Amino acid sequence: MFACMQRSLVGVEIENGGVLMKFVQTSAETGGALHLQEARYPARSKPPPSHCHPKQEERFVVVEGGLNFRIGGETRLVNAGDEVSVPRGVFHRAYNPHAIPALVMWETRPALRTAEFFLSMSEASRGKARPSLPDAAAILLEYQDEFQPEKPSPLVRRIALPCLALFGKRRAGSTR
């Protein structure tokens, strides 16, 4: 029943912080169990902000190239043929430090609204590296089960995000 209520986003390609993502399976196809995407990291990509997924775990399988992961307090270089898992609620980030691109299969379980989160961030960025602060605040409020930045602190986020979101062009519930 849950999968029937959502539209399929399989095949959608977006850019998020320089990383090209292609949705392979989403919540609609897996009954909410899994979101799977192919991610192409450019050479020497920039690290994203440290973040966690409070209700999800992730698994990355490096197909080509390599990524540098920081998971909790540990840094690890993961190369083609390797995989790494990130438990729910653990702060992490990954980027490509190498001179060649990296190809990664990236799973998120359960899917929740992962595809919609990435789609919202991509649309709000409008060709820039990141969305405006008010737009990002609105998206972070809407998708707090899927994504929480490490900074600012939870207390500051609880106070500041609702105020900033009032000025965002991005409104809760709107996706492509």
Q: How would you portray this structure in words?
A:
Helix content is 22%, strand content 33%. Strand 6 and strand 7 form a beta hairpin. The protein has 176 residues and is an alpha+beta fold. The protein has two domains: 107 residues, Jelly Rolls (Sandwich), CATH 2.60.120.10; 52 residues, no CATH class. The N terminus and C terminus are likely disordered.
Strand order of the largest sheet: 1-2-3-10-5-8
Shape: globular
How many domains? The number is: 2
β-strand number:
11
For this structure, what is the CATH homologous superfamily of the largest domain?
Jelly Rolls
CATH architecture of the largest domain: Sandwich
Fraction of helical residues: 10-25%
Q: Percent of residues in beta strands? A: 25-35%
Q: Briefly note the CATH topology name of the largest domain.
A: Jelly Rolls
Could you list the spans in which at least 5 consecutive residues all have pLDDT below 50? Answer: 1-5, 171-176
Count of alpha/pi helices:
4
Q: What is the residue-averaged pLDDT?
A: 90
Structural class: alpha+beta
Task: Give the distance, in angstroms, between the N- and C-terminal Cα atoms.
Answer: 22 Å
Radius of gyration: 16 Å
Describe the largest sheet.
6 strands, antiparallel
CATH class of the largest domain: Mainly Beta
The ordered string of helix (H) and strand (E) elements is EEHEEEEEEEEHHEH
